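Problem statement: downstream parser choked on a complex file, so we are re-checking the raw output for the adenosine-5'-triphosphate run. The parser issue turned out to be on our end (a line-ending mismatch), but while we're here, posting the original submission so the record is complete.
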Amino acid sequence: MEIFNLEIAVHNFGPLLAGLMLTIELTLVVIALSLVFGLLVALGGMSRFAPLRWLVKVYVEAIRGTPLLLQLIYVYYVLPEIGIRLNSFTAGVLALTLNYSAYLSEVYRGGIQAIAIGQHDAAAALGMTRTLAMRRIILPQAVRIVIPPLGNYFISLFKDTALCSVVSIQEVIFTAQILAARNFQYFTLYTVAGFMYFAVSFPAARFVAYLERLTKRGYRRRRA
Amino acid sequence: MSDRPSDRPMLEIEGLHKYFGDNHVLRGIDLKIAAGEVVCIIGPSGSGKSTLLRCINHLEVAEKGRIRVDGQLAYCTEKDGDVRPLSNRAISAVRAQLGMVFQQFNLFPHLTAMGNIIEAPVHVLRKPKELARRRGRELLAQVGLADKENSYPEELSGGQQQRVAIARALAMDPKAMLLDEVTSALDPELVAEVLAAVRDLAARGMTMLIVTHEMNFARQVSSRVIFMDRGVIVEEGTPARIFGAPREPRTRDFLRTVVDR
Ligand SMILES: Nc1ncnc2c1ncn2[C@@H]1O[C@H](COP(=O)(O)OP(=O)(O)OP(=O)(O)O)[C@@H](O)[C@H]1O
Ligand SMILES: [Mg+2]
């Protein structure tokens, strides 16, 4: 039976940590892109321009109805057949961004629609245009509502980056695979890999829970 | 009581019809309000009072009829008998001239009292922030909330919130104010402070169209009372006449039920 081999763990810690850094980098890039793109998708889905709404609907349903793994493979292996050749990192970023933007757009939509109709009325009655009301009144309130669900999505994004091993991004899993092919220390390598994920996602989850409590507190003056 | 109303018409409503699906909610409303006039609308629930107010600032779109604000045709243009809707921006510009106060206050919860008040002056009228704040302080003092400028809505009582909402509407220097049952969501002990703020406005000569269930208040504050039922104006006149000697049976029935209550 295999046992945890401390020597192997120490010896391979460096490359695995490098993999973790790449995982984190990938996660942060996709967070930044999907925060923006997801909002644009959400706003597009609420546009008064019907073709844009349909386009958004098709996009969101297509993404939600197919596995992320398929989307990754599609971007990396199928797109080159029509002349779009992306390096593995870019392909990973693109597929993850397309995937998460679709889900985040639904979160944004929920947040925006949760703002009471009276807020729209009040803004309109003060002479604010729809765009101004959205920017100054609706979105600032919606942000507060969507922070916890967005945080939870980002934690699952962090773990989903593991799928990028299929497009040869040298993140944690890909690195572990390469190392294990050499020394067959599956138990040790994947246990270290697991702890690396956990060491990031557990505190992140606690932080999101803290934000959730914070946002539920309502709007009040900070008292000294 | 206020200065005598002038002859300058501030709000003119002509042949207004509004449907919600098959429900014919406003059935030809004609109403003219002069500058400085305070008109109270009373009537049973569902008679279309709120809808009328919402049509006047285009929160609901009337299917038929014309609205003029200070002599200007609002929300549509007319050329050679051809009626076209205005652009969204132009509609917003008309709304900016009318202040509205809602039953549910509808303050912006993420902004302080002062933030609520200066929001539209700064971002719609492009007034310099400092100027808007100075005016905001005057208005907060006017509604008796000088010490609340940094409070968030949820730190205020209902009566205080509604007074901030009044100040917020006033900050736009509106040509007229539309008030829809501004005390109905308040605990009884908070009604008086809001009514006092409205009375003060009337005394300052603000043109107002007020929907209310407070009959005593309507009697005291208004220059004219309108009784609405089922989408039409049934009867109108001075408060003394409407409350003292209503002509229409429907008005009499309604007043009997509210007095009995
Ligand atoms: N958004 C809407 N959609 C459909 N029907 C509506 C809508 N708003 C109002 N109505 C209907 O229009 C009619 C008039 O409603 P409105 O709110 O104007 O009455 P009201 O006189 O203000 O009554 P209340 O004293 O209860 O406030 C009612 O039959 C109501 O059900
Ligand atoms: Mg009403």
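For whoever reads this later: Chain A touches chain B through 23 residues (CB under 8 Å).
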